[in-house]
Amino acid sequence: MAVDAAYLMQFVDETSFYNRIVLSHLLPSTLWDPLPHFLQTWLRNYLAGTLLYFISGFLWCFYIYYLKLNVYLSKDAIPTRKAMLLQIYVAMKAMPWYTLLPTVSEYMIESGWTKCYSRVGEVSWILYFVSIATYLVLVEFGIYWMHRELHDIKPLYKYLHATHHIYNKQNTLSPFAGLAFHPLDGILQAVPHVVALFIVPIHFTTHLGLLFMEAIWTANIHDCIHGNIWPVMGAGYHTIHHTTYKHNYGHYTIWMDWMFGSLRDPLLEEVDNNKDSSKKAE
């Protein structure tokens, strides 16, 4: 129908607007303007994702390893430059594939296959925030089980997720490890963001923002600093995940781990470690 086509064009216009903002500031128009819309969108996502990864990673490392040295982490807990460069190398190899997922999701939205809507004004503010909350619950549930199965199904762990788990000690984890995955592993863990589009109505730009916030969030949960803000799945919880391999699979919160019996609290872990140290000293 003409009305439907006109409505879907709002999504195309919006993605074209984002493409122009990013690409016109980073590349000569002769390089990107002749490309089909899908490729322009992928190039925009790739360049924006890469910039976000480096900017968030470098700023966070500068803050915790230089400005706040010995405040949050002791010098011997800081990963080596070699470890961080390896993490960057792995992430950069995967980045073209990571950014293909939001490009595909934007294509599906532009085609009218999802429940996305274009303008916030199309729904009430109450419904807008309820839909975001529902979306995040679905994403949290999906990422938890995807992550858990990447551990429990041995071939998936061996051929995909083990690439990320070579960083298994405090002095090998850094904000740059947040996207250091096998490409398929990273895509699988982001798929719940796309699946949720078919279940709950969500504002288009909000969906894109939440998807790209993943880069900042994953940098944060790999810095080994325990924020201790309930019920947030902070770096203290995620560091335990990297050392035990069988706890704290959640993403934003600890709720799924609490519900499904895989939660391990970093404060209790610290108490247990102190008890063990005392017994050894005796």
Automatic annotation (TrEMBL):
Primary residence: membrane
One Pfam family here: FA_hydroxylase
Limits of the Fatty acid hydroxylase domain: 133-262
Cellular localisation: Membrane
Keywords: Membrane, Transmembrane, Transmembrane helix
Domain of life: Eukaryota
Keyword RNA-binding among record annotations: no
InterPro entries per UniProt: Fatty_acid_hydroxylase, Sterol_Desaturase_Related
Residue ranges crossing the lipid bilayer per the database entry: 46-66, 125-146
Family: Belongs to the sterol desaturase family.
PANTHER family for the chain: STEROL DESATURASE
Name of the molecule in the record: Fatty acid hydroxylase domain-containing protein
Organism of derivation: Brassica napus (Rape)
